[in-house]
Amino acid sequence: MNAAETALNGTPPKPNGPRVWPGSPNPLGATWDGSGVSFALFSAHAEKVELCLFDSDGVTETARITLPEYTHEVWHGYLPDARPGQLYGYRVHGPYEPLAGHRFNPNKLLLDPYAKVLVGNLKWDDALFGYTVGHPDEDLSFDERDSAPFMPKCQVVDPAFTWGRAMDFRPWHENVIYEMHVRGYTILHPEVPEEFRGTFEGLASQPVVDHLKHLGVTSIELLPIHAFLQDRHLIDRDLSNYWGYNSIGYFAPNPDYLRPRNDLSSFKSFVQKMHDAGIEVILDVVYNHTAEGNHLGPTLSFRGIDNYSYYYLMGEQPRFYNDFTGTGNALELRHPKVLSMVMDSLRYWVHVMGVDGFRFDLATTLARVEGPYDKHASFLDAVAQDPVLGHVKLIAEPWDTGLGGYQVGNFPPGWAEWNDQYRDTMRKFWKGDEGLLPEFAGRFSASADIFNRRGRRTWASVNFITAHDGFTLHDLVSYNHKHNGDNGEDSRDGSDSNNSWNCGVEGETGDPEILALRRRQMRNFLATLLLSQGTPMLTAGDEFARTQQGNNNAYCQDNEISWLDWMAIDEAGRAQIDFVARLLALRHQHIVFHRNRFFHGDIIPGTRVKDVIWLHPDGREMTRDDWHDHEARSLAIRLSGEAGIVHLTETGEQEPDDTFLLLVNASHEDVAFVLPNGDSGAWEPLVDTMSEDGQPEGDVGPHSPGVKLTLGGRSLRLLRLVAKAG
Fold it and tell me: How many Å apart are CA 6 and CA 389, to the nearest integer?
């Protein structure tokens, strides 16, 4: 008997059970059409699929229905009497042959990969595993316990929502990204209503919106909000999967972030509130692996639906999984149905949920074909031709843990990429490492050596000093070593290559000189980041010097280590917030700081000046010997805004700007800079990181060309060319 015959001849519903019609194989998932609900589940190797319905509390299974049809490897049926709010799950029958890559076990209730809402939380129990935990044969054994009492349930939804005014597309080069965590951002916020803290509703509150607008960020990038699980080994240590890089559903938001719980409108209302404020919403998404782990992991969804299709198995040993991510498995995006699921998910979050873009975690894994990364992998080609995804922001984390996983600069046109070379260079430079002037200049200029090919633009380089993974900005200047003891791994976890400098004392100190130096170093990092070409990304809390007490891998810390403490913001923190806001106002007002084209160091047509000039502190243009002076830690950068191809508007008109001079001194000693000659104007100071508020100190008027300015050790100064008085 083949699979289709098995389905058609399965156990019929009880006479008084739900009515079941054949339905359609499309779309996948549970779809309310106004009259009933269509259920459709892909499984190429199943022999029978049972739809399990549950009562409103998710405890009692009220019906078990064999899906009556099997079309193009999709099992489907239509329930004319089902309605939104119905809870359900699946049991999938088929061979349990781990050595052949098959792990079907109908004793295990399975989540629908297309479920839009999950109700309830996973309760860890050995019954969740397809094999008998502790058995000498491990996963080759078979477990007959029912997992339903311990599983969350899927819920049928009505997607209707009335959207307000649509947000206009923001050009990439104008973007400033702000990475944040839904829960950690508001859980301690005193101005957010307590019942909404840690949720999308909390992020949509007016105090949060006001802060984001004051800063001047244009996009918020949310750490994973797809439904994810709390790892058993973390719960056993009283920890949690705080960051959320452990997805189990690619259409459903994490239930804990919804208020009211299970109400999708709270997410949509949050998106609308951000759009009304002119702020885009970007999701950090994890399509490279799932929460089911390696061959010894639980059977929760994909593994039990069709393990052989959904996962990237080891060719001659399909019992095991290829693991390019360090998490135990990798999704098999070479399979057309798995690829379709990912594409359907992305389009759903754009079309139905209203988001503006995605940051792809460990994106190299998504483009592995027969092992190595491939620029023409099915996933990359599918995204490139998609009419919906072609109009949203796409950001790659261009590496994974597998062989050949580091692929910075190798993603296709249309993609932006996290640039860890920018991070490392700027950290080393301001720490005082030698021989970094050429590297500093390259990273400051949007890393043209990496991204200036195939018509890519400056914005392809997503520049950052810190991210969720690693030290906060405060800790970067306060610790030489990671302090991850609270993670329970004897500080073996987290990177040892932080390029950090504690400014003289490890951790907290009351020394006013060290504290002043740390604040100045933070201003140096922030100014460098926000004045560099490319797309800057700030990490939430860095604007007021949030600390994680030296923990550089707080993935499991759902507590005060990770949460933003708004009540702890002191006078220095408020000054730093305003410093960031002033820098971003400058960036937004002046196209010279966010050009759409790379510098070429050539004469701008119609002028006598170059688009950028790199100057020695003595005022002359840098020579080859100057660039290779390993002791040098200072230079000046003239950013030309003269009429020319600084920027072209949509109608092709030239958009000139002011001309700026950036003086940079990473040495611990004062350095005298000679302001460049040949300019018919004077240099007006705008930013000086030597001062606590970043403002030029004293009543300092414009300086004439040729004047010497002394720049304090480890500081930065920005000046603008203005017309001479009189």
Answer: 39
SS3 371: coil
Strand partners, 703: 683
pTM: 0.95
Q: Residue 716 corresponds to which tokens in the numbers above?
A: 């930065």
Q: What is the pLDDT of residue 678?
A: 66
Q: What does the pLDDT look like over 341-384, one tens digit per residue? A: 999 999 999 999 999 999 999 999 999 998 999 999 999 999 99
How many angstroms separate the CA atoms of 137 and 132, rounded? 9
Q: Which residue has the tokens 């498995």?
A: 329
Per-residue model confidence (pLDDT) at position 41: 98
| CB count in 10 Å sphere of residue 631 | 7
Report the relative pairing of strands 102-103 and 357-360 from DSSP bridges. unpaired
In whole angstroms, give the CA distance from residue 472 to residue 433: 20
Residue 366, CA atoms < 13 Å, CB-side half-sphere: 24
What residue has token string 């949920």? 353
Task: Write the DSSP symbol of residue 266.
Answer: H
pLDDT of residue 8: 40
6 pLDDT more than 80: no
Give me the residue label for tokens 């996962």.
311
Please report, in angstroms and rounded to a whole number, the separation of the first and last CA atoms in the chain.
96
Q: Describe the chain by its helix, strand, coil percentages, rounded to 5.
A: 25, 20, 50
- Count each helix (H run) and each strand (E run) in the chain, helices first: 16, 30
Note the pLDDT tens digit of each residue in 573-585: 999 999 999 999 9
Q: Kind of pairing, strands 461-464 and 416-419?
A: parallel
Q: Which residues are catalytic?
A: 361, 397
| Cα-to-chain-centroid distance, residue 609 | 39
Mean pLDDT of 95-106: 98
Which CA distances in Å does 436 have to 121, 174, 662? 50, 28, 17
